[in-house]
Specification:
The protein is mainly α. The protein has a domain of 87 residues: Arc Repressor Mutant, subunit A, CATH 1.10.10. The protein is built from 8 helices and 3 strands, in the order H-H-H-E-H-H-E-E-H-H-H. Strands 1-3-2 form a 3-stranded antiparallel sheet.
């Protein structure tokens, strides 16, 4: 069995193998773009990612192809081109990435205030913002910089004065 051979040579856990396939700076972003837009040309991916070099994008796509996350479609038309899309495994990987996002927003809902532009319309981010609003933790639109949100917790004056007496 292929899996047995993999683990004979490799002592990594399934978690570590999944992180290799789905992790890194660019792979989750590529997976998310393909999940939202379906098939995309190389230039569309590069433009949407912004700031990625051709070498890095080509390498990431090659790894995603090798791992069965992405499939490549070659078109031999008047203007030959290729498109990339997620496989079933890639779509399942997107679900795993969304679970990680849900976990992060659950324990750090303030992340929703500073989400990158590609996360602005994500349902998980909107849920985190609703939770902040429900708890009265959503900052008002008063023009202040909330880059250091949330603020330090208030000091309990009773316990602070006890600490000074000791």
């Amino acid at each position: 069995m292929v899996l047995d051979k993999c683990f004979e040579k490799d002592i990594r856990t399934p978690y570590e193998l999944a992180i290799d396939e789905l992790g890194g700076r660019w792979k989750p972003r590529i997976i998310s773009l393909l999940a939202v837009y379906g098939k995309m040309r190389y230039a569309e991916l590069r433009h949407s990612l912004g700031g990625i070099s051709d070498t890095v994008l080509a390498g990431a796509l090659k790894e995603l192809l090798r791992d069965g996350i992405v499939i490549r479609f070659n078109y031999s038309e008047t203007t030959p081109h290729v498109e990339y899309a997620l496989t079933r495994k890639g779509l399942a990987g997107r679900t795993a990435l969304m679970t990680v996002c849900a976990w992060e927003y659950h324990y750090h809902p303030e992340m929703a205030l500073h989400a990158p532009s590609r996360c602005q319309s994500c349902e998980l981010r909107l849920q985190a913002l609703q939770a902040l609003e429900t708890e009265g933790m959503l900052p008002s639109d008063d023009g202040r910089d909330y880059s250091e949100w949330p603020p330090e917790p208030p000091v309990d004056k009773a316990s602070a004065s006890q600490g000074k007496e000791a």
